[in-house]
Description:
By secondary structure, this protein is mainly alpha-helical. The protein has helices at 5-24, 31-60, 67-74, 79-103, 113-119, 122-134, 136-143, 154-183.
Amino acid sequence: MQSHLALLLPVAVIWWVAGYLADRLPRMTHALGLRRHCGWLLALTLTGLGLTVALPISGLASVGETLADRATGGLTLAAVPALVVATCTVRRLRRLRAGAGALAAAPRTPAPHGLRAAAAHPLIGLPLQVTALALVPALIMASGASRFLGPEVAGPTITVGALVVTVIGVRLALRHNRLAERARPERAASARPAGALHV
Length: 199
C-alpha cells in the first residue's frame, strides 16, 4: 500500500458519501428531513472541497516531492467537477436548505414537489458523483494495482467512465423532470362543456 493512498482515501470517501447523500436528497418527503439532509450534504461538500484544495497547497509549502505532491497528482482528474461543485452545487444547496428551513417549523410538514425537484437538479447530484468517480483512478494508481493492468486497458476504461457519467446524468435529469412535472399547477379544466351557448 502506497503511503500517499492514506491522503487520498479520506478525500475519496468524503466525496463518495456526498454523492450518495445527493442521490437520496430528493427522496426526503418532509421539509425538516430535507433541511437536515441538505445540511449534512453541504457540510460534507465543503469538507471535500477544503481537503481537495488543502492537498495542493500543502504540497506547495514544502520543497521537493512529498506525499502531498503525489496525492495532488491524483486529484487532477477531479479538479473540473470539483470546480463545478464549488461554483454551482454549493449555491444550490444553500438555497435549497433555506427554502426547506422556511417550511420546517412543524416536523411533519411535507416537502413540496418544487423543493424536491430543486433537490433533484442535476447540478446538485451530478458534479458530486462525477467528482467521486474521478477519484477512483487515483486510488487505483496509489494502491499499486495499476501494475497489474496493461496500457491497453486505458481506452476501455475511459469509454466505461464516459458511459457511467452519461447514465448518471440521464438518470438525474429524468428524475428532476418527473418531480418538476408534479410541481406544476394543474390547468383548470373548463366547467362549461364544449360548444355550450352563452345564455
